[in-house]
Specification:
single chain; 4 domains; 364 residues; 27% helix; elongated; alpha+beta; OB fold (Dihydrolipoamide Acetyltransferase, E2P); conserved putative lor/sdh protein from methanococcus maripaludis s2 fold; four-stranded antiparallel beta sheet; Elongation Factor Tu (Ef-tu), domain 3
Length: 364
């Protein structure tokens, strides 16, 4: 039995010795670690923040009717370009019975007064020709005749306005809807036969059309309070529109709201920027857009990837290759960063190579 146990222990010892010998042999023949290196490069570094918003016309007006009634004719449709004063629609007035009745009574009264004044003038005209009455007396009746004639014409015009919305006397029609500016029709929300309400002090009225100058567009968006302090008027914006792929539009920041508003748990400040368009560009109102606001910019500077830096207390270092796989830690002075690349102000030459940290290689 003792011989068997001794044989087992000997076999275990020999197996363990063989395994340890194989392990140390492989370890001694393992290739040494080779660190990757990268050289600094020249690039443009842009530090920016993002604001979300939409493209809207700077000047947009809604055209409303001066009278209530029913749309009788529409002469335009959305998308057309119109001029100031161009006819957009004609309204058929549905007269108010009470107003019509009052206007008819006023007209009849004015006609009776006019006829009476006419007869009196004719009588006094004969007497004046016979030199029976003085000129002053005659002129009094002539003036009364002229006043009654004007009153009659005014009553006729008033009745026509109540019935039709038009006046023969001055050639104006309140039932014709005209464009108030030059621009493009963004929307015509009414159709022929639609009942509409007039614009007055107590009611904003029914919108006949919406007109905007589509050559003068602005970006309206909101920015977080943590970024608003970095903005100033005149900054450049790069607009990316979701509906238009592969194109970036330039804009110029022109307004920053002095007061923010609580939105989704954060304070947001409205901003506005002028969209700079070329003659060939055409954007539709309401496009959603993202604005990259350029906070700072460096052109053609020496830079490295920010992940290749080493930080110790308040100092920044890189490991510079002095000989193949021999590195030296060196302090550098950094500048602007865009979150990926960072500017090297001093301490590193463009021709030198720096060590890529192991954690960065693993992440790649």
């Amino acid at each position: 039995m003792k011989k068997v146990l001794l044989s087992v222990f000997v076999l275990i010892f020999l197996a363990l010795s063989a395994w340890l010998g194989y392990y140390f042999y492989n370890k001694s023949n393992t290739d040494p670690i080779v660190y990757q290196t990268e050289a600094p490069f020249e690039t443009d570094i842009i530090k920016k923040t993002v604001a979300t918003g939409s493209i809207v016309p700077r000047k947009e007006v809604v055209v409303k009717s001066q009278v209530s009634g029913v749309v009788e004719e529409l002469y335009v449709e959305a998308g057309q370009t119109v001029k100031k004063g161009q006819l957009l629609a004609k309204i058929r007035i549905v007269p108010n019975i009470v107003n019509v009745n009052n206007a008819e009574n006023a007209l009849e009264t004015a006609r009776i007064n006019f006829e009476e004044a006419k007869r009196e003038l004719e009588r006094y005209d004969e007497l004046y020709q016979q030199k029976v009455v003085a000129e002053q007396e005659y002129r009094k009746y002539k003036a009364d005749y002229n006043l009654k004639r004007e009153a009659l014409q005014s009553a006729e015009n008033n009745l026509q306005l109540v019935r039709e919305g038009a006046s023969k006397r001055n050639g104006q029609s309140s039932n014709l809807v005209l464009s108030t500016i030059d621009g493009m029709l963004l929307d015509v929300p009414v159709k022929v036969g639609t009942s509409i309400i007039e614009r007055n002090n107590f009611n904003e009225g029914t919108t006949i059309a919406s007109v905007a100058d589509m050559r003068s567009l602005v970006f309206e968006g909101k920015i977080d309070e943590s970024e608003v302090g970095k903005l100033k008027e005149g900054m450049d914006l790069l607009l990316t529109i979701g509906a238009i792929e592969g194109k970036i539009y330039n804009a110029k920041l022109e307004y920053i709201a002095p007061k923010g508003a609580l939105e989704e748990g954060a304070i947001k400040f409205p901003i506005r920027a002028q969209v700079l368009l070329s003659e060939k560009d055409f954007l539709r109102a309401g496009y959603s857009a993202n604005a990259d606001i350029v906070l700072d910019k460096r052109e053609k500077v020496v830079a490295v990837k920010e992940s290749m830096l080493l930080f110790e207390k308040d100092a920044t270092f890189v490991e510079v290759e002095k000989a193949p796989q021999v590195f030296e830690k060196r302090q550098v002075k950094t500048g602007l960063s865009d979150g990926i690349n960072i500017e090297i102000v001093s301490g590193l030459q463009k021709t030198e190579k720096i060590k890529v940290p192991t954690s960065t290689v693993a992440a790649i």
